[in-house]
Design a protein that fits this description.
The protein has 14 helices and 20 strands. It is of the alpha/beta class. The structure holds inosinic acid (IMP).
Length: 431
Amino acid sequence: MGKTIVIVGGQFGDEGKGKIVDFLTEKADLVARFNGGNNAGHTVVIKDDVFKFHLIPSGIIHKDKLNIMGNGMVIDPKDIVGEIEGLEEKGYNISDKNLAISGNAHVILEKHIEEDKATGGKIGTTSRGIGPCYKDKIARTGLRMIDYVKEDNKYARKLKPLVKDTSLMINRYLDDKKNILLEGAQGTLLDIDHGTYPFVTSSNVIAGGACTGLGIGPTKINKVIAIMKAYITRVGSGVLITELGKEEQTKNEDSIDELKKTLGEEGLSYLKRKIHNKSNEGDEYNQGRLLRFNGMEYGTTTGRPRRCGWFDVLIAKYAARVNGLNAVVMTKLDVLDDFKKIKLCVAYEYKGTRLTEFTNNVKILEQCRPIYETMEGWCKDITKVKEFKELPKNAQKYIERIEELTKIPVCIISVGPERNQTIILRKEDLF
Ligand code: IMP
């Protein structure tokens, strides 16, 4: 009996979906992505090989899996051809046997990128033409893949054999009771309808988007799982209630590559020690910097330093609500290893009242302050832990407290980027 599992981001994107999708792909027959475009970035580490994908589902690096890019996506022809050629250079054979692109997916054109660069500044978009392309789609003036590949240019020729009726393909896999993994890009709070509008992306990121973005019915979905980091990050603008330090401070920081260049390895570890000490003295900006350093929180698509903050329970509950979550995958728990105290945001203070439910009304959010519960850290390296009961007691308590507050079970904990740094708690939620 096959299963259909939807994976979504439970926060603002960058939750580490790439690794988890890759992990679950081992038992999947088909992996399909349903929204967004090359605004997303997935990094998958396999031994010494680092794969960075923006468009193609990471299932492509497994043999004998079909990967689908759904009608809900927007695709930049140059970028997709670049990814295909990059994989071919590494020895992967790409054909319609392992990759199919929906003919109904929309094509990002140069004019979309130009428009995004000119108008996306306020939101802090990735400048990849995403919003303008979706705008043309909704206005019914867009160009779809099925029409694009009729053109005589080198990208169109390369893509033509891959463009298919992908809804039909997925439904055939469903009929054959195969294991199907449906992958959403970005995160719940960036959803066009349910995110912190207008500081959102232009597609439906939430689990419901899997149906419209792929052409399958809601009755076919068995499990919905959100990936959440053990803390929270955001790139681009928009409110982040538990942010540590000011948005401007983070934006003005150097990227990790620049820091390495100017400070060298030795200077960098000195800086890290300084940040570590200040962080444990309770300095908020340095707590954010420590999360950024330990978690390598720099964008895969733009290289921007990500804004970091404590885990927000209200956001997690909201994600549970709008996605109908069965379980949560908690990633990057090891990033908290250095902290003596760890905070959980359990409510917001709004004009003297206590809010316990998230609202996506940005005007209200802008006036909210976090109310924290402080937990003891574990101050131990957990990157080699394989079982929940081997985790330090305080790390177990942290996970259990989140489960208790959100009422959603944690099914996997990730303690590092490698596939084997994965602790499984609930097999029944997986394939
Ligand atoms: P756009 O998707 O490029 O239009 O950008 C809109 C907003 O979504 C900006 O705040 C981006 O930083 C954010 N965003 C888009 N894609 C991602 C992602 O994959 N991870 C995190 N944030 C993203």
